[in-house]
Amino acid sequence: SLPLPPEGPPTQLCFDVTDLLDYLRDARIPTGIQRVQMGLLGAILAHPAPPAPVILVAYDPSTWRWWHVDTAAFLDMLRLARLGAGDDPAWRAATATLCDADPRPDAPILPGATLAGFGNAWGIEDFFRGLRMLRRQVPLRYACFVHDCVPLLMPEHCLDLTARLYARWFAALALHADLMMANSQATAADLRRFAAPLGQPAIPAVIPLAAEAPPPAEPAALAAEALDLPDEPFVLFVATLESRKNHLLVFQAWIELCRRLGPDAVPRLVCVGRPGWRAEGALSLLAHSPELKRKVTRLSGVSDLALAGLTARCLFTVYNSFHEGWGLPVSESLAMGKLCVVPAHSGLLEAGAPGAVFFPEGDLPALVDTIARLATSPSHRAELEARIDRAAASRPWDAAAAEALAHLAAPHPAPAPRPAFPAGLRLPLGAALPPPTLAGAWGEAVREGLGWWWQE
Predict the structure, then answer these.
(1) Cα–Cα nearest to 22, from 134, 103, 123, 90
(2) How many other CB atoms sit within 10 Å of the CB of residue 446?
(3) For 106, which DSSP code?
(4) Which of 50, 139, 181, 355 has the most CB atoms within 10 Å of its CB?
């Protein structure tokens, strides 16, 4: 049997930052999920009166140990991550201090605590085994935040290992998660859909994401000046260069625009994002099209300050994707008063509600027409910009953090029974491809003792 959570309000709020520290060991510029974690946790740690004492913890899968993350070092890391993009000595020293578990004591987790994760624990080795071992020592609740269900909905746009690890993690939530949060109504609906066959009622709290515009006094525009960009009008596309973001369709639109309007009438397309996976089609088109070679610039390793400067200077932004749990670049564009052209589906409908320009998903002619009018008609662009609800788009992180804290701190009734052990059913012990199954969840949960390697 698996431990059941305690009843009543939490005695302590413990936030798991394991995956964030793993990311920062190798990279300084955060992507979407890391930016969400940093925004929420920064606001939670600054909260003047949290509903329970707050600590940061991380998990060491080599020893199944939960250790105490230093709050001051974590906050210093947040500050430095936003200020720059290089691997300077201050950054390297800050991450070395923050990410080294050996000198840090065990996490002082209290009985009755709630352990919450805002990141992607699906990639952490033996995470749930470590959670079970902890729960046998300290009665606690486990709460998770679901950013999207893309590996279940569209495994063709994910690495094979990602789809396997995510399916294993999602299945295991049926046995381990006591509270769930999602970033949009669209993600909550996807979560319920895939959780139902697992016997998990999955009633997540929806915590819409924040997108604070930078204060005017910050030298964001000056930071962007250092980037190697021609002094000409441009459109901004912020996304990892991977197949799900569908750069291919946007590149095709730019070729059509050049041929319809002439290259001189078409703004430059600036793509900001690190190289990803399964984007061979887009990269091949970019490499072989004379129009794209002339009109497209790729940038990576761009700091938050420089990105804000680029957003301030651009004509408008575009964010194309086959599916999104939310779409943080959409919110950030609108928060700065810049139009964002997005396909009308999934969480993008919610992120773009304050004033995005929607087009039918996959409709190349509609995308070309939309961009052509925005690029060639300043009056049309200004009219649509005036309709942006910047107050709605500029939701502060402390508002999102307050909602998350309220959900985590609420007293909860006696928990529902865990799904029953499927006696007589073959349990897969590896990490299987989607869809997630209850047999897969129990295949993870029966791995007890020291005689198991992590699932492959």
Answers:
(1) 123
(2) 11
(3) B
(4) 181
